[in-house]
Amino acid sequence: MTTAPDPHTPPALADTAATASPAPSPATSPAPSPAASSRRLTVVADQTPDSPAPAGCNSASTGTDVPGEASRARKAAAAKAGADLRGEVLLTLTQLRLATPRQLKALLLPHQQDTDHVRRALRNLLAESPALVGRTHRAQQSYWYCTPAGLAEAAASGELASPVGRTTGKRIAASKTGLREHGLALVDTVIAFHQAEMADHADWRVEVPHPTPAGNLLPDAVVLLADGSSAFVEIDRTMSYAGLLAKLERYDAYRVAPASGRGNAARAPRSHWQETYAGPSLERPFPPLLFVFAPAPRRATPDTREATFHDRARPNWRITVATTTLHQLTHDGAGRPVWRVVGHGEDRRALTALPKPR
Is the Cβ–Cβ distance between 11 and 176 less than 8 Å? Predict the structure, then answer.
C-alpha cells in the first residue's frame, strides 16, 4: 500500500523477530479474587444520567407509562450495555495485548463517532481494585493493556478459547524499541480483517508457540478465517531480509513437525499442523503465511521492502506466502485483491483466491 505516515509515531527501530526465538515462559496469572467468578466481567455499571421527569409527574409511580418508570428502565439498560462493553474491552485487550481507544472503538463500536463509551469502559476497568487494565501515555496518546488481575478476570469469565499462556501487554505498551508500534500494527491488521468480515476480532491468537525440530515457532498471530480455514500472520517493520527468509525456513520446518502427545494408533501419523489446523478429514492445506509490511522510521518504505522481499524469496511450493502493506490492507480492505503471492508475479489477489500449496 502507498506508504502513509505511521499514525502511532513509533519511537525506535527494532522489530520483534518473534518467530526466530524460543517461546517465552507464559506469565502466571494470579488466582482470581473470590469475587471474580461471580462478577464475570460485569464490573462497575455506567452511571448514565437520567432524563429529568416533566414537572408534576410522579416518578415513583408503578405504571409502565410513567416517565419515572421509563427512566429506570433506560438506566438499567444503559448499565447492562456498559457492563457488556467493559467485558468486551477486557476480553479484547486480553487477546490482542494492547490497543488504543480508537482501535477498540473500531472493533467494538464501529458505528460510534467518538471514543467516549470505550474510554468510560476503560476508566471503569482501571478504577477496579485491583485495576483490571493499565495504560501508558506518549505523544498525547494512551495505550491500554490488561493487568494480571484483568487476565484472571477474563479467564474466570469462561469466554476465552484458551486462557493458558496469556500475558499482559504492559511490557509492549511501555516499550521504547518499536515493540509497541509492532503490536499496534497487528491490531490495525485485525481491524482490517474484522471490517472486511474476513475474520472476527475474537478469532485471533497472538504469539502461540508451534513446535519445530529447531525449537518453537512463534507466529505474530494465527487467525481463524470466516470460511473455517486458518492463516499465519507476520507483521514486519524493521527485520532484516535475512531474518525474513529465516522465518520462511522455520515455517517449512513446522510443516513437517510431528504432533505433540501420544497420537492415535488407529490412524496414520499426523503432523502438528494437521492435528491443529487441517480438520478431521485432512481436507485443508497448510495455512498460508501472510506478511504485512508496516512503516518504521529510518527504514525503506513498506512498498520497497515488500518488492525486495519478493526479489529475494525463492518460491516454496509447499507453503503459500503472500504479502501486502499495512496501508494497502487498511485502505483497500482485507477482502480486496491486495495480496501478492511469492513466485506468482506482481499481480495481486484476494485472500480467497490465493493458490493452494502443492
Answer: yes
> What is the DSSP code (8-state) at residue 236?
E
- In this structure, the number of other CB atoms found within 10 A of the CB of residue 117 comes to 20
Say how many residues make up the chain: 358
Q: Tell me which amino acid residue 29 is.
A: S
Q: What letter would DSSP give residue 264?
A: -
Q: Are 344 and 310 in contact (CB under 8 A)?
A: no
Strands (E), 40-149: 133-138, 141-146
**Pure H helices in the chain:** 36-39, 67-96, 101-108, 116-127, 148-156, 170-173, 179-195, 241-255, 272-277, 302-312, 326-332
Helices and strands in the chain: count of H runs, count of E runs: 11, 9
Q: What is the pLDDT of residue 264?
A: 54
| Rg of the chain taking only CA atoms, in angstroms | 23
Separation CA 157–CA 95 (nearest Å)? 14
What is the pTM for the complete model shown?
Answer: 0.77
Residue identified by cell 486458518 is 230
User: What are 290-342's pLDDT values in tens digits?
Assistant: 999 999 998 999 999 999 999 999 998 899 999 999 999 999 999 999 999 99
